Amino acid sequence: MNDQELYSRLQELRQKINYHNFRYHVLDDPEISDAEFDQLLVALREIENEHPEWITPDSPTQRAGAPPVEKFTKIAHPAPILSLGNAFNITEVKAWYERIARLDERVRQVDFVVEPKIDGLTVVLHYRQGVFVQGATRGDGEIGEDITHNLRTIRALPLRIPVNPQGPAAPAYFVVRGEAFIPIAEFEKLNRRLAEAGERTYQNPRNTAAGSLRQLDPALTASRPLTLLVYQIVAADGDIPTTQIATRQLLKDLGFPVPAATYCQSIDEVIQVCIEGEKKRDTYPYEIDGLVIKINDLILANELGSVGKDPRGALAFKFAAQEVTTRLLDIGVNVGRTGVLTPYAILDPVEIGGVIVRQATLHNFDFIEEKDIRIGDRVLVKRAGDVIPYVIGPIPELRDGSQIPYQPPSTCPACNQPVEHLEGEVAWYCVNSACPAQLIRNLEHFVSRGAMDIVGLGIKIVIQLVEAGLVKDVADLYALDQESLLKLEGFATKKAENIIDAIEASRQRPLASLITGLGIHGVGEVLAQDLTRHFRSLDELARATQSDLENIEGVGPNIARSIVDWFQNPANQKVLQKLRTFGVWPQAQVEEKPLQNQSLAGLTFVVTGTLAGLTRDEAREFIQALGGKVSSSVSSKTDYLVVGENPGSKFDRAQELGVKIIDEAGLRELAQK
Ligand code: IVH
What is the spatial distance between Cα 438 and Cα 461, in angstroms, rounded to a whole number? Predict the structure, then answer.
C-alpha cells in the first residue's frame, strides 16, 4: 500500500472503530465480537506506529494514555450552564405551571418532555468540525475546569460526530451538555473487586464519578466505569432544533447517548408521569434523584427567562429523599471468599423508599473508626436504586451516653482463628483455609456464572453441602452422587438428578472459567482469560514464576505474588490433585497467531515515562508482539530502558547499572532490524 492508500485505510479503520464503539457503548447492541473489535484497533495501531505523525487526539487509540496534568485549567462556558428549580411534590409542580402560564398565556398550549434527572456530574462538551476538542465541568455555571483528557476515556463519548457517516452533518461549532456517571451495576462490580483485593471500597456512585473525573491522571479515570448521557445543546453554529424532542433526535442521530424520555401533551400527563416515575425509580440502571420536566418548545422556554440560575421553562421534580435515620443495633462481620472480613450494620428496621432495610454496608473497619460510629448510635442510612443500602455516618448530637465504641474482632467470627492484616491494605483477613465461612463463599463463587456456572446450585444448597460435611473443598463437588444428595432436606430424585447433571456439564467449561473459579486473590474473569493466553493448562500456570507472571499485562507484583502463593499452598495443591483425578482439567484452546517478525526476541525491556506515540500498555504489547520481554523493574538483566518524558527513578537506576537507554524512536528502530 502506498501512503495515500494507507491513510485511507487508517481513516476507514477509525470510522469503523467509532461506529462499533457506539453500537456497544451507546446502543448496547454490538454487531461484532470483542475479538473482532480488538483486531480493528490492532490494525489501526499498526498504521499509527508506522506513521506517528498521523496520530490525532480524536483517534480511538488516544482515549487513554494522555499524561497526567498538574492542575486543571479554567474554561469559560459559551453560555451559562443553568441550574433547575425544584418541586418536592405534585402541588409544587402545579404551582410552577400556573406561575409560568400566568406569565405567558401560550404556556397553556404547550407540550412537555419528561426525562430522568441523572444523579451524576454535569459536563460540557465542545466539538469543532465534528471533533471532540474540549470538555469541562460545570464549575460555577460560568467557568468550569478543563477535564478533556479524562472525558476522552469515556467510551460512550463520541470523539467524532456524526459517528455514523450517514448521519446529519455536525455544526462546525457545537457545544452540548450532559451528565457523566457510573451505572449502579458497574459501581457494585467495582466495589466487589476492590473488597476482594482488600482495598478501600467507594461509598456511592456519584462521589466516585466526581472523584474519577477530577483525577489529574487520565489513566485513573480510564479505569473507572464512567458513562454519559447528553440532553442539551448549549451553543452551536447555524440553526439548531427548536424543540426538546427534535434536539434529542439530532443528538441521537449524531451518535450521542441520550436519556430515556416521556412525551406529554399536557401538564396533567406530566403529573401522571411524575407519580408513576417515583415508583419506577429503582428500575433505572443508574441513580436518579428525580425527573426533569421540560417545555418542549425551546424558543418559548427561552423567552420565559430565568429566576436567578433557574430557567422558568424547566423544573426538577425531586423524589423523596432515600435517606433516613435509624438506630444501629449492632455491627456484624461477614467473611468473604478470600477471607476478607467486612463489617455491616444491623439496623433497627426502617422503611426507605418502600423497602424495609435491616442491614447496611459499613464499607470497612477504617470507615467505622474514621466516622466514629458507635453501637447504639442513630445513623444516617441511604438507599438509592439497587445500590446496597449504606451508612453515611452517625449523628453524634443524638448520643445519650449509652453508645459503645466498636472494636473490630481479633478472631474470625466463623472459625475463631486469629485474623491478620496485610501490609498496605485496609482489610483484615481470616487466613484459615479450612474456615467454613470461606468455604461457603468459595463454593458460591466456584459455581457462579462467571466461573463454572453450575446451574441450580445456589447458596442454600452450598450451605447444606458444607454443613452436612459432604463438601470440604471445590473438588468434592465432582465426587457427589444422587444418593448423598437425597439425604439432604428438600431433595427429591428430580432435583438431585438436575444438580448432578449440572455438575457434570460444568466439566466442559473452558480453562478460564476454572481459573476464575479457584478464587485466587486478584484474579477475576478478565485476568483469568488473559492468563489462558499464556498458560495452556493449570500445570503450566502452577509452574509460572513471579517474573513470568509480572510480564503479563495487567499483572502487577501483588497479583503475581498472590498467584504464586496460591499454587504453593499445600491445601490448594491437594484440591488441584483432586480436580485432576476427577477429570476436571481443561486445556486452553491454542490461538492461531499470525507470524510476526520476532526482532526483539531474547531482549528484556523496561519502559519509563510518557512515550509520545504509545501508552505504557501499548508499548508493552508492541514489544511482546515482536518477541521481547517487558519487566517492571530495572536490573542487570535488563537490555534496554525505553525512556519517555518525565522518566522516574528507573532512569537513574539504568544509568547506575549501565543499561542501554533508548527512546521510542530507538525502540522502533530496533524493531525494524
Ligand atoms: S436540564 C436548563 N436534564 O440536574 C436545563 N438536567 O439541578 C437545565 N440533570 O446539575 C438542565 N439530568 O446537570 C437536565 N435530564 C436532565 C438532567 C439534568 C440531570 C442535572 C443537571 C443539573 C441538575 C439540575
Answer: 15
Q: 83 alpha carbon to ligand 1 midpoint, in Å?
A: 7
Interval 613-642 mean pLDDT:
83
Instruction: Kindly provide the b/e burial profile for residues 480-501, where b requires at least 16 CB atoms within 10 angstroms of the residue's own CB.
Output: beeebbeebeebeeebbeebbe
Does the C-beta of 231 come closer than 6 Å to ligand 1?
yes
Q: Which residues contact 670 (CB under 8 A, 6 or more apart)?
A: 599, 600, 603, 640, 662
Question: CATH number for the 3-62 domain, one of 1.20.840.10, 1.50.10.10, 3.40.50.300, 1.10.287.610?
Answer: 1.10.287.610
137 lines ligand 1 (CB under 6 A): no
482 CA to middle of ligand 1, Å?
A: 58
pLDDT surpasses 80 at 196: no
Q: Which CATH number fits domain 604-671: 2.40.240.10, 3.40.50.1760, 3.40.50.10190, 2.102.10.10?
A: 3.40.50.10190
Give residue 264's pLDDT: 97
Q: How far is CA 271 from CA 88, 266, 408, 503, in A?
A: 13, 9, 50, 52
**Cβ(292) to ligand 1 under 6 A?**
yes
For the CA of 119, the closest atom of ligand 1 is 19
Q: Is 360 in the pocket of ligand 1 (CB under 6 A)?
A: no
* CA 549 to mean position of chain CA atoms: 24
| Strand 629-630 to 604-608 pairing | parallel
Which numeric CATH code is attached to 86-318? Answer: 3.30.470.30
66 — pLDDT class (breaks 50, 70, 90): confident
Mutate to test the pocket of ligand 1, among 112, 113, 121, 122 (most ligand atoms within 8 A of CB): 122
Q: In what order do the strands lie in the sheet with 262-264?
A: 85-87, 314-318, 288-295, 112-118, 262-264
Q: Which fold has domain 323-405?
A: OB fold (Dihydrolipoamide Acetyltransferase, E2P) (2.40.50)
Please state the atom number of ligand 1 nearest to the C-alpha of residue 115.
15
pLDDT of residue 385: 62
Q: 180 CB less than 6 Å from ligand 1?
A: no
User: What confidence tens digit (pLDDT) does each residue in 544-573 have?
Assistant: 999 999 888 778 888 899 999 999 988 899
Residue 120 CA: nearest ligand 1 atom is: 19
Class of domain 430-581: mainly alpha
291 lines ligand 1 (CB under 6 A): no
Q: Quick check: 592 pLDDT over 50?
A: no
pLDDT given for residue 305 in this prediction: 95
Domain with CATH 1.10.150.20 in the chain: 430-581
pTM surpassing 0.70?
A: no
Ligand 1 atom closest to residue 294's alpha carbon, by position in its atom list:
1
Query: What is the per-residue pLDDT for 34?
Result: 84
Residues belonging to the active site: 117
